[in-house]
Design goal:
The protein is globular and about 35 Å long. It is built from four helices and no strands. The chain is mainly alpha-helical. The chain is 70% helix and 0% strand. Belongs to the complex I LYR family. LYRM9 subfamily. It comes from Hibiscus sabdariffa (roselle). Pfam families: Complex1_LYR. InterPro entries: Complex1_LYR_dom (IPR008011), Complex1_LYR_LYRM9 (IPR045291).
Length: 83
């Protein structure tokens, strides 16, 4: 759960780099996804890794959509893949 909270926090930091008018949508989107998966089986490490990969890839897609440099997601990448 701690790792999931760190992923969520990093996603919210990335939302701050988006254009002001799009921030509320993506902040709400991130929260809804976090809430939807809160009852996820934390003992299933493979499934959790897939969720973190999806979160990272989606974050890159959003950053690219708004022409934000992907390097902004380095910390998220580190949290998702290196604990």
């Amino acid at each position: 759960m701690e790792k999931a909270l760190r992923v969520y926090a990093e996603m919210l930091r990335l939302v701050r780099r988006l254009p002001k008018d799009s921030r509320p949508y993506y902040a709400k989107y991130a929260r809804e996804n976090f809430v939807n998966y809160r009852d996820f089986d934390a003992s299933d490490s493979k499934a959790l890794d897939e969720l973190f990969l999806r979160a990272y890839n989606h974050s890159l897609w959003v950053l690219n959509k708004y022409s934000v440099d992907e390097s902004a997601a380095q910390k998220l990448k580190q949290v998702c893949f290196h604990g």
